[in-house]
Design brief:
The protein is of the alpha+beta class. The chain is built from 7 helices and 8 strands; from the N terminus they run αααββαβαββαβαββ. The protein has 2 domains: 5-71, Arc Repressor Mutant, subunit A, CATH 1.10.10; 86-227, Chorismate lyase-like (Chorismate lyase). The strands form 2 sheets. Strands 3-4-5-8-7-6 form a 6-stranded antiparallel beta sheet. Strands 1-2 form a two-stranded antiparallel sheet. The protein starts with a helix and ends in a 17-residue tail after the last strand.
Length: 241
């Protein structure tokens, strides 16, 4: 091993991560073999292995025996609850899907915005309010923040046509997501959008996603309780009675 190799593995790891997080290497992309990386960087197999190991741990790549190493495909549901895309959910019920963009604003993030996104430094955010409809009736109210530092292309997207959740899943690679689910009564403004009373029980789903260490989006989805349910199917763990 040459004296440069202790730091070379960090460079290799960083360059691979950048290609993945920038979208240059999309989910499912087969990355160069260890041998190819050894030739490209002029290093040993141990150095390449030290570079790839942390990327596996971070969920950026997956290794498949006899097949190679691939950019990981982020799951579209949480580990516990299957939460399908709203448009898919509505259409699977046989209802026509509808969508309305209610408002769009770009601003410097407030303290509340930064807390919602889970970031320490303020910056420009895209603020969207949307309504999803089933058979012409309100199905879900969406309030979303998108960090333009993490997803600058969002500023140029016509969200009057494209729902932001669907665009983000297809255009902005993410490495971690968090769901928070609660039962709430809607605010007066949300109740008005959903055409319900403020006394109606609603399901609130809050989702945050990150790309590496950078927060990408925070969304708050409010569903009238009668319109949406969550289903989880599971089996007992072998180590539990």
């Amino acid at each position: 091993m040459t004296p440069a190799e202790p730091t070379l593995h960090r460079r290799i790891r960083s360059e691979i991560a950048e290609r993945i997080l920038s979208g240059q290497w999309p989910p499912g992309y087969r990355i160069p073999t260890e041998h190819d990386l050894m030739v490209q960087y002029g290093c040993s197999r141990m150095t390449v292995s030290k570079a790839l190991g942390p990327l596996v741990d971070e969920g950026l790549i997956v290794r498949r025996r006899r097949a190679g190493t691939f950019v990981a495909r982020p799951p579209v549901h949480s580990a516990v609850l299957d939460i399908p895309d709203i448009q898919t959910e509505i259409m699977s019920r046989g209802d026509p899907y509808g969508y309305e963009l209610l408002s769009r604003t770009i601003r410097v993030s407030s303290q509340d915005d930064d807390e919602a996104l889970d970031r320490a430094v303020s910056g420009p955010v895209l603020v969207l309010e949307c309504l999803h409809l089933a058979s012409g009736r309100p199905f879900a109210h969406e309030a979303r923040l998108i960090s333009l530092g993490a997803a600058p292309d969002a500023e140029r997207v016509d969200f009057g046509i494209t729902p932001p959740g669907a665009w983000l899943l297809g255009a902005v690679p993410w490495t971690e997501a968090e769901h928070r689910i609660s039962a709430v009564n809607p605010s007066r403004a949300t109740a008005k959008r959903l055409l319900i009373e403020t006394s109606v029980a609603c399901l609130c789903l809050q989702r945050r996603t990150w790309r590496g260490h950078d927060p990408v989006t925070h969304v708050r989805l409010t569903f009238p309780g009668e319109a949406y349910d969550l289903v989880a199917r599971f089996t007992p763990r072998a180590d539990k009675a």
